[in-house]
Design goal:
The protein is mainly beta. It is 0% helix and 49% strand. It contains no helices and ten strands. It is globular and about 40 Å long.
């Protein structure tokens, strides 16, 4: 059974940067297309970014295009999300999972809070 552990979130001012990490056990992530998703309070979980199993191509939601970069290190079995020029509307819990569905069990996510 796969376990996903997201980390790297925190409180940052608008315009700042964060780098999220997603580590997995129980699966070799290099075999899968992977994605980052987020859920803001009172909203449904939404797609943020995805990366092909072969380390690209990548795909991004329009709201983050040009600011966020997804990458992966298949040796470390880890997927990353570099987030630059953060905005208050990026505030959410961020999750990683295989993409597309059917999804594995979701991890606990990592909270990103962007202050204005």
């Amino acid at each position: 059974q796969v376990q996903l552990v997201e980390s790297g979130g925190g409180l940052v001012q608008a315009g700042g940067s964060l780098r999220l990490s997603c580590a997995a056990s129980g699966r070799t992530l290099s075999r899968y297309d992977m994605g980052w998703f987020r859920q803001a309070p009172g909203k449904e979980r939404e797609f943020v970014a995805a990366i092909n199993s072969g380390d690209g191509p990548t795909n991004y939601a329009d709201s983050v295009k040009g600011r966020f970069t997804i990458s992966r290190d298949n040796v470390k079995n880890t997927v990353y999300l570099q987030m630059n020029s953060l905005k208050p509307e990026d505030t959410a819990v961020y999750y990683c999972n295989k993409n597309p569905s059917p999804f594995w069990d979701w991890g606990q996510g990592t909270q990103v809070t962007v202050s204005s």
